[in-house]
From TrEMBL:
<dbReference type="GO" id="GO:1990961">
    <property type="term" value="P:xenobiotic detoxification by transmembrane export across the plasma membrane"/>
</dbReference>
<dbReference type="GO" id="GO:0005886">
    <property type="term" value="C:plasma membrane"/>
</dbReference>
<keyword id="KW-1133">Transmembrane helix</keyword>
<keyword id="KW-0472">Membrane</keyword>
<feature type="transmembrane region" description="Helical">
    <location>
        <begin position="103"/>
        <end position="125"/>
    </location>
</feature>
<feature type="transmembrane region" description="Helical">
    <location>
        <begin position="378"/>
        <end position="403"/>
    </location>
</feature>
<feature type="transmembrane region" description="Helical">
    <location>
        <begin position="270"/>
        <end position="296"/>
    </location>
</feature>
<dbReference type="InterPro" id="IPR011701">
    <property type="entry name" value="MFS"/>
</dbReference>
<feature type="transmembrane region" description="Helical">
    <location>
        <begin position="415"/>
        <end position="434"/>
    </location>
</feature>
<keyword id="KW-0812">Transmembrane</keyword>
<feature type="transmembrane region" description="Helical">
    <location>
        <begin position="191"/>
        <end position="207"/>
    </location>
</feature>
<feature type="transmembrane region" description="Helical">
    <location>
        <begin position="153"/>
        <end position="179"/>
    </location>
</feature>
<dbReference type="GO" id="GO:0015244">
    <property type="term" value="F:fluconazole transmembrane transporter activity"/>
</dbReference>
<feature type="transmembrane region" description="Helical">
    <location>
        <begin position="348"/>
        <end position="366"/>
    </location>
</feature>
<feature type="transmembrane region" description="Helical">
    <location>
        <begin position="41"/>
        <end position="62"/>
    </location>
</feature>
<dbReference type="Pfam" id="PF07690">
    <property type="entry name" value="MFS_1"/>
</dbReference>
<dbReference type="InterPro" id="IPR036259">
    <property type="entry name" value="MFS_trans_sf"/>
</dbReference>
């Protein structure tokens, strides 16, 4: 019996390494990619709910700002700091290896905000909730890659991204009703109700999806059962002889190290600037955009991937940027229509159309860059997304501080035109990565080889 357990716990190369604990063949039911479609969809929903919860926490604060100004006699800039501090995306750089504890602290640290008697308490705990909640993007995207193969990943990441994009859209709407009816504290009540429900849901129903962790637990069970202390998973063998401190240090520093990669630097800076532009959209626009993206993936990307596979090659990550380059035109177009259409003598539908065009641009940009960086750095997806979150959130977080003065002093039309010009200036980033990205990857020891 012991021999059977040991034999079943190894891969095809177990003759050379009989103590390597791995999957029980290609159809191992413990492998997340072999889970039933229903289970994988349920896990994906759980991950998307967590992401939506974290992202709605940013914008749901905005309806509370007038009440905070009134109650604590502070300026608009001081009150808006609660939004800025929440959006600073440094959390994933330290917490991306973890999930449950940061999420728990995200829930708990909302209580002092609700009971706050001064602005300092609000600002301090808005920073802490944002810090502990921000790893959702990094861990969420990486978890999707754990349970779905590359051929399906673009579709599910697209659905998951709706949670990230939809959170800031829904926040002001949901929080606005509560703030008007019950006061500025009630949007925070809504956030703690949603996040507490999501946390309990996660703890009860979300299984482990990370392959090295699953195999580590299997190896621990087999060592206990067989008394053979030589049985180890690949992750244990790779880190054998290293201290816990050095392993943890590597996990924490990797996002900072990868952030220096030229490919990631260009992608992160671009997405950061675009995310800081006026973020207005509609869920119907998101649904239409995702439908288009799914068709694009099915009819254009998949056939190219199949041809590359048939030729013994893999699809170049730069292909993922093509749709992003086209979608970049939506952002300045949207800003110009919205800015110059928001006048008394212009029909109200014009700025609505302009606003609706913004979401396809930002969504397809978001999706193409996420798919690109994870395809270019498949072994370090969580760390890559953590670095991306830092750049994007840090740049975007400062925009609310000067946004009101910016539009008031310049006027809605000229201010929107200026932002449209900035977005146009960022478009060469896509083109540069599409043209020279393979050269940058060839010089990297972390990226997938061209």
């Amino acid at each position: 019996m012991v021999a059977d357990i040991i034999r079943d716990s190894t891969l095809d190369n177990e003759i050379s390494d009989p103590n390597l604990v791995s999957w029980y063949g290609d159809d191992d039911p413990d492998n997340p990619r072999n889970w039933s479609p229903t289970k994988r969809a349920f896990v994906a929903f759980n991950i998307s709910l967590m992401t939506f919860t974290m992202y709605i926490g940013s914008a749901i604060y905005t309806p509370s700002i007038p009440g905070i100004i009134s109650d604590f006699d502070v300026t608009l800039v001081h009150a808006t700091l609660g939004l800025t501090l929440y959006d600073i995306g440094i959390g994933p750089m330290f917490l991306s290896p973890m999930q449950e504890l940061p999420f728990f602290l995200f829930v708990i640290f909302q209580i002092p905000i609700i009971t706050a008697t001064n602005i300092q308490t609000i600002l301090a705990f808005r920073f802490l909730t944002g810090f502990f909640g921000s790893p959702a993007l990094a861990t969420g995207g990486a978890s999707m890659g754990d349970i779905y193969p590359a051929s399906q990943l673009a579709y599910v990441v697209g659905i998951w991204a709706i949670g990230a994009v939809g959170g800031p859209i829904a926040g002001p709407v949901i929080g606005g009703f509560a703030a008007q009816a019950k006061g500025w504290r009630w949007p925070q009540y809504e956030l703690i109700w949603l996040s507490a429900f999501s946390f309990v849901f996660l703890m009860m129903f979300l299984p482990e999806t990370y392959e090295p962790t699953i195999l580590l637990r299997r190896a621990q069970r087999l060592r206990k059962l067989t008394a053979n202390q030589q049985l180890m998973s690949k992750g244990e063998k790779d880190t054998e002889g290293e201290s816990i401190g050095s392993i943890f240090k590597e996990a924490l520093l990797r996002p900072f190290i990868l952030a220096k990669e030229p490919v990631l630097m260009f992608a992160n800076v671009y997405l950061g600037f675009v995310s800081g532009l006026p973020f207005i959209g509609f869920f119907v626009s998101a649904a239409a955009t995702y439908t288009f993206y799914a068709l694009y993936q099915k009819l254009h990307i998949e056939p190219r991937a199949d041809r590359a596979t048939a030729a013994g090659k893999s699809l170049a990550p730069e292909v993922r940027l093509e749709i992003g380059l086209i979608a970049s035109l939506f952002v300045p177009t949207s800003l110009l229509i919205f800015g110059f259409g928001s006048r008394e003598n212009v029909h109200w539908i014009v700025p609505i159309i302009g606003a609706s065009l913004y979401l396809p641009g930002i969504y397809l940009n978001f999706q193409s860059i996420l798919m690109y960086v994870t395809s270019a750095y498949p072994l370090y997806a969580a760390s890559v997304l953590a670095g991306n979150d830092l750049f994007r959130s840090s740049i975007a977080s400062v925009f609310p501080l000067f946004g009101r003065a910016f539009f008031t002093n310049l006027g809605l039309g000229p201010a929107s035109a200026l932002l449209a010009g900035v977005s146009l200036l960022m478009m060469p980033v896509f083109w540069s990565l599409m043209k020279w990205g393979h050269l940058l990857r060839s010089r990297s020891k972390y990226a997938q080889s061209p």
